[in-house]
Amino acid sequence: MTDEQPSISCPKFQAQEGVVTGLTQQINAARTVAEKAPKAEELIEAVEELLDCSEYEESLDCQLCHNFSQLRKKTAELILKAGRLAR
User: CA 32 to CA 28: how far, in whole Å?
Assistant: First the structure.
């Protein structure tokens, strides 16, 4: 068995994935919602670039990218909502 990770064959996704993964790690490492919120805002901006892709087509790679990006955006929005509720 190999540890090979499946990937999406798209240069835009590959370029943004490093940014998104880094922001996700920073959000997970933050201890409070106040520390998480700025990174969540950055994450939303990063995935918006993928959601607004002008090269989107009905391929499996594009659909997966779009679905992952929507999920990540919803997660970041929940973090921001939790921050507003905690005030």
Answer: 10
